[in-house]
Write a structure and sequence with these properties.
The protein is built from twelve helices and 23 strands. The chain is an alpha/beta fold.
């Protein structure tokens, strides 16, 4: 974990004649926060050079001295869930050149701190999707006052370099007013975990709609993989066309003004990404890097739609794996749970390949301690932002209950394992397939292909925990796929009511 502070702040904190304490805590350390249980309690910040710092929490006290650039950091012993507690941070300046005694001391007190589990929720618009927009908001928002759920929203910030702190209004307990603008998926996840595990839950909402995976990944991590060079070529083309984009924006505003003056409806324009939010590493720098000194339980991730264009989708698997592995490396806690949502069903356009993107997400399950919430059954083919967020949050919570909290429950829908040709048919084997069933008269969404790779619609039947598929148009099938479309017709589930993930065996 690296602590980074801007030079302007350092110059303020290191005057020539220091006589008063200048302790500064990052905004993520505040009243009402949640501290991760059973891990060392990390407290860090800035002060004057050589200032003595003492931190007290839950009966433990640790001291340190700020370095020559003013940075300081201490770790206190871990503890079990509980609270509320107070934390005090005391700063005592070193004597200056004209005084033999230390300068004026300072004490910062943080109150109403809970110890429990902290989850970081990140990604693009379907994770950013606010609770007040959810289909179940009218039912659930009035009951959102849950004192043991604490929420922190990170304000949008892109940066060319890793920032030291976030822009935020701070931690607060879950209330209807606080919750209405928070991530619906993350809030439903927190409600379910708090109810079942009976520990305080803190959720950090660090999201930005319409953003690609590479923007959330450290640039140096992306650059270490030569296969990801096309990302930087694409970014270069975007920046070179920035002046054209500005002209388009100016022209769009002119057209809107003219329509308004003429009393006509405002015309609609194709979506154009905000340039700063698409730069490789820029959202990692501005919205994730400042979080990494804080101990967490795990990550919730919902993103991928912006990586679905034909030329981008095949790269997503490498980007996503890099992101997961690098986030874990930067937090320094090992392979913490990384739970993510597979993008849902959306008609989109022929210029996008949502099926390929889902396949890339599926392959990320090869990484240890990951789980994927399949949502192919609860999307809206006509809206990229389906309003059913409660089921998404509950499916992520099932994964957390199994992977992080040790419950013996089914947490995944059927996942493709292998396909074995059987003459004129092909048999598909799955993991998580106990109680395999189809919602409807017959299994739908399957296609088969011969050695030529040309797929044809297939009839499919359930045989125990497997599927047997065949087509009169394919004499000897060797490949099979399921749900292979932007907005497919899928109806395969397991006994836990969780949907099967779309897949293809053609590149496995």
């Amino acid at each position: 974990m690296r602590l980074r502070f801007p030079l302007s702040l350092l110059l303020i904190l290191i005057p020539s004649a220091q006589v008063q304490s200048q302790v500064i805590l990052p905004k993520i350390l505040s009243d009402h926060m949640v501290i991760e249980r059973d891990l060392p309690v990390h407290v860090w910040g800035m002060a004057a050079a050589d200032e003595k710092i003492a931190v007290s929490f839950r009966g433990a006290r640790r001291s340190t001295v700020a370095g020559e650039l003013g940075r300081w950091s201490v770790y206190l012993p871990p503890g079990e869930a509980g609270g509320p507690f107070e934390m005090t941070v005391e700063g005592t300046p070193a004597p200056n050149g004209t005084a033999a005694e230390p300068g004026e001391a300072q004490t910062i007190t943080l109150s109403d701190i809970l110890v429990g589990d902290v989850w970081v929720a990140s990604g693009q618009s379907n994770m950013e999707f606010q609770m007040r927009q959810a289909a179940t908001a009218d039912e659930d928002l009035p009951h959102a006052a849950i004192p043991d759920i604490r929420l922190l929203m990170v304000k949008k910030a892109a940066s060319l370099y890793p920032k030291d702190d976030i822009d935020t209004d701070g931690w607060a307990a879950s209330t209807p007013e606080r919750t209405k603008d928070f991530s619906a998926v993350a809030w439903y996840f927190a409600r379910e975990i708090e109810k079942r595990e009976h520990v305080p839950i803190g959720v950090i909402d660090s999201t930005w709609g319409g953003t690609p995976g590479e923007a959330w990944t450290r640039m140096s991590a992306l650059g270490a993989d030569a296969a990801l060079a096309p990302l930087f070529v694409s970014w270069g083309k975007m920046t070179e066309g920035e002046s054209d984009a500005l002209l388009r924006e100016a022209n769009k505003q002119r057209i809107l003004d003219e329509a308004k003056a003429a009393g006509k409806p405002a015309p609609e324009f194709p979506w154009v990404p905000t340039l700063e939010s698409w730069g490789p590493g820029m959202l990692w720098n501005g919205m994730i890097a400042p979080l990494t000194p804080l101990a967490i339980r795990g990550v919730l991730w919902y993103q991928g739609e912006s990586n679905s264009p034909l030329e981008r989708a095949p790269l997503y698997g490498r980007i996503f794996r890099t992101l997961i592995e690098d986030w874990r490396h930067e937090w320094g806690e090992g392979d913490f749970p990384f739970l993510y949502v597979q993008i849902s069903a959306f008609k989109s356009t022929p210029a996008e390949d949502w099926a390929e993107l889902r396949e890339q997400q599926l392959k990320a399950l090869e990484l240890r301690n990951t789980a994927m919430a399949v949502t192919i059954d609860i999307g809206n083919p006509d809206n990229v932002h389906p309003t059913d967020k409660v089921d998404v949050g509950l499916r992520l919570a099932r994964a957390a209950r199994a992977l992080s909290y040790g419950e013996s429950i089914e947490y995944s829908g059927p996942l493709f394992r292998e396909a074995t040709p059987e003459g004129a048919a092909i048999r598909v084997w799955f993991d998580h397939a106990e109680g395999l069933t189809a919602k409807g008269a017959a299994v739908s969404g399957f296609e088969v292909a011969g050695a030529d790779g040309k797929f044809a619609a297939a009839a499919a039947r359930i045989d125990g925990a497997t599927i047997v598929a065949s087509s009169p148009d394919v004499a000897q099938p060797v490949f099979v796929r399921y749900g292979w479309a932007n907005s497919p017709d899928c109806n395969l589930f397991n006994g836990a009511g969780l949907p099967a993930s779309p897949f293809t065996s053609a590149d496995n």
